[in-house]
Sequence to fold (162 residues):
Amino acid sequence: MRRIAVCPGSFDPVTYGHIDIFNRASKLFDKVIILVSTNVNKKPLFTPTERIKMIMQVTEGMDNVVIDILDGLLADYVKDVGAVAIVKGLRAVSDFEYEFQMALANKKLYPDAETVFLTTSAENMYLSSSVVKQIATFDGDISSFVPDAIRDDILSRIKKVN
Ligand code: PNS
Fold:
């Protein structure tokens, strides 16, 4: 049986923290679907197409990883593709309550999948997409937060907005 996992998130934009989770999930499961999803509490800067393009660039070489997009309920998607797990990165205590709530809601909606939390690597504890956007807005150096392949895309997009 092929064990499929879904890695959902806003990825606005994808960071080294996310990439670390994709990499580790790809070693635990037969197939990993990175799912660019809608978080109703966030107003994304990048379009879904831009986010997918950036994820494609930074996951080159991860052979069992595919990318998809969802404008709907995560639990329905997980059921439709027959995934056994939802994989999320957990950074700190501050993430816990929100992630715990989502995990319980998803379990209620689709009990056959488990949410699996991977603890973020120590060097990414502080890292988030919003930190990257804030630093880039003020022309700071984001090279230790995102790969070179997407750095210019992020900077030029942020310049266009400001
Ligand atoms: O990276 P984020 O913004 O923390 O990811 C949150 C995300 C997108 C995974 C979450 O909002 C989500 O699952 N959205 C899809 C819609 C849905 O199923 N919402 C209910 C979750 S309990």
